[in-house]
Each structure stands twice: as C-alpha cells, then as structure tokens.
Task: inverse folding
C-alpha cells in the first residue's frame, strides 16, 4: 500500500493562482499539520493496493492509445478550516513582511489575504470569512496536487487554482474539472499497475532449426486478470476505483525479418478456455501451429530476440457504481532464441 501525502509550499505572487502542493510519490511518509478534536486530518492520502509498482513508481503497462496520458495533477482535500487558516495566514504574513515586497506582488498578497479573511471574491470564485473557521469539521479546503510520475514539469504544475472549500458529502464545484473523482483514481491505478512477465512456452525451447515451425503458447494460469486499486479516504470524502486488466491476445515479433509467424499477423487470440495457442504434442513437428514462428535463417553465433507482448483489455469500476473503459494496455518480454542450420524433426 502506497501513501501520497500533501503539503503546501509558499504561495506565488499572483493572487489568483497557487502552486500545486507537492506529492511524496508514495515514499511511505506521513505529514500532519495539526488537527484537533474534530478529527479533521491535515493530510489527504491516496493509497494504492493490488498489483502495483513498488515505492510509488510507474507500472509496466504501456497504453496502446498514444494520445492517452494519466492525469498530470489534480485537486484533492487538503486541510480543515482551522489548520488551513494557520498554514495559509502564516505563509501570507511571512511574504508580506519580506523586505522590499511591494508593488504588484504586495497588492496581490493583500488581495489574497482579503480573499480568505474578508469575503473578497471574483467571478466564479467566492471569498471566505475568517477562513471558514466557523465551519471547521463541516468540510475541507482542497488544493492542487502534482503527479510525481509526470515527466513534464509544466503539465505537472498546471493545477494552479487557489485552494477552495468543499462541504463534507458534496462534490467540488463543476469548474474544477481536475478535482479528484473515481475516473481520476482509475487512471492513477492504471499508471501504477504492474502486469506479470510474459514468458511464452516454446517447442523447441530456446534452440530451434531453420524452417522448423516453433510452437508458442500460454496457459491460462500464467496470465489471469490483474487488478489495481486507488482510494482516497478523508472525513466526509471517501472514493475509490479499481482498474482491471484482462488478457486478450499475444503478439509475437521474431526479432528478424527472416521469419514467418502463425498466424501471419503475429497476433494470437485468446482461446475459449482462456489460454493462447496450443501446446506442442509429439507427432506435430511438421504441422502448422495455431500460434508460433518459423525462422528462415540461422542466428549464427548469436540469438534472435523474440518479443512476446500481451495486449490487455482494461476497464474500471468505482464508487457509486461509476465505471467504464480505459485504453488497452500492453506489456511484453524478450526471449533469446537460437536458430541452427541443421534440419531436424522435433520429437
């Protein structure tokens, strides 16, 4: 189980934007900003379970849709009203008291202070009276969170709206399209999902002959469905999503153009019993395998790198009956195959 912990850095000079809070990326640490007898937590945690990469790392699934990417950032519960007031007011006062602060920067900080203290708002962004402390325990302030696995720093830091209030049990305002919800958790579970290695059974195994069909197959037990779950649980807001990957086909790439595949496309579909291909049996040496390869040239003193890639159908289910499909994923391994010139019959 991985834990992602939120914390907030000093605010930028722009009164209408804030830096996303950083994310420990599942380092296993927990950070608290105080809390009180209401039970309000100072940190929101996304926890991952199931078949996921260790230490908050990116999993090994590659989306077949090259245009699909996991969310680079999102908005999530951050602090209760009293804790938020303590943190935010300290940050604002610290910056206002910085020597030389003034002009646009000083004016922006003053407006930011009015926004949370004196009910100062603007279009689609209502202000707050004394940081909503009279509602402490009835909701939380939400803030932007960076996805630590997003390599593009600009995308990762694009959730720059100021922290906003959400009542317990209510959805965030519609304008915050990147507010955490089951669909986003499903995408994050997809990003962290770890699929099993794909080692195809071959006959002949490892060493085959030129022009001799090599049979390839996978038993159902080798690659059953895989699940990964992401959950967020804080007072008044509990959601989760489980992403499920089901194998649908195996694609063989011989590692050389001097080969033919069975079928010709190289894509072996799943059988009715959940297996792929057919195990070799004595007496089938000269038969055409339903899934396999025939090498036309020797590998010489080296080997060919046979790539066996499984395509997985990926879907998700989540809180309140939510669910849907995600792009197919793929993951494969390379296997060294030696091809010899000597003709032989596989017995």
Result:
């Amino acid at each position: 189980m991985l834990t992602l912990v939120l914390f907030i850095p000093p605010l930028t000079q722009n009164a209408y934007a804030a830096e996303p809070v950083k994310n420990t990326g599942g380092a296993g640490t927990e950070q608290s900003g105080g809390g009180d007898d209401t039970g309000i937590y100072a940190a929101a945690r996304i926890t991952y379970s199931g078949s996921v990469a260790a230490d908050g790392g990116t999993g090994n699934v590659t989306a077949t849709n090259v245009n699909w990417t996991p969310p680079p950032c999102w908005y999530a519960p951050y602090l209760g009203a009293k804790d938020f007031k303590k943190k935010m007011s300290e940050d604002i006062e610290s910056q206002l008291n910085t020597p030389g602060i003034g002009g646009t920067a000083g004016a922006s900080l003053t407006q930011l202070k009015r926004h949370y203290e004196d009910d100062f708002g603007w279009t689609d962004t209502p202000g707050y009276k004394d940081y909503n402390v009279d509602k402490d325990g009835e909701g939380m302030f939400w803030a932007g969170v960076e996805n630590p696995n997003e390599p593009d720093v600009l995308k990762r830091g694009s959730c720059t709206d100021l922290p906003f209030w959400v009542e317990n049990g209510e959805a965030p305002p519609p304008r915050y399209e990147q507010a955490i919800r089951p669909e986003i958790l499903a995408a994050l579970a997809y990003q962290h999902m770890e699929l099993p290695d794909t080692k195809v059974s071959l006959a002949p195994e490892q060493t085959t002959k030129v022009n001799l069909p090599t049979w390839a197959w996978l038993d159902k037990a080798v690659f059953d469905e895989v699940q990964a779950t992401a959950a967020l649980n804080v007072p008044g807001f509990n959601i989760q999503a489980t992403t499920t990957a089901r194998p649908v086909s195996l694609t063989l790439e011989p590692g050389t153009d001097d080969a033919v595949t069975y079928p010709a496309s190289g894509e072996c579909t799943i059988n009715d019993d959940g297996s792929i291909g057919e195990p070799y049996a004595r007496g089938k040496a000269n038969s055409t395998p339903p899934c396999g390869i025939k090498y036309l040239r020797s590998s010489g003193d080296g080997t060919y790198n046979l790539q066996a890639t499984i395509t997985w159908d990926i879907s998700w289910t989540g809180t309140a009956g939510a669910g849907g499909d995600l792009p197919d994923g793929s993951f494969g391994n390379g296997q060294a195959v030696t091809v010899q010139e000597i003709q032989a019959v596989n017995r």
The mean pLDDT is 85. The first helix runs from residue 81 to 96. The longest strand covers residues 323-340. The CA atoms of residues 210 and 341 lie 5 Å apart.
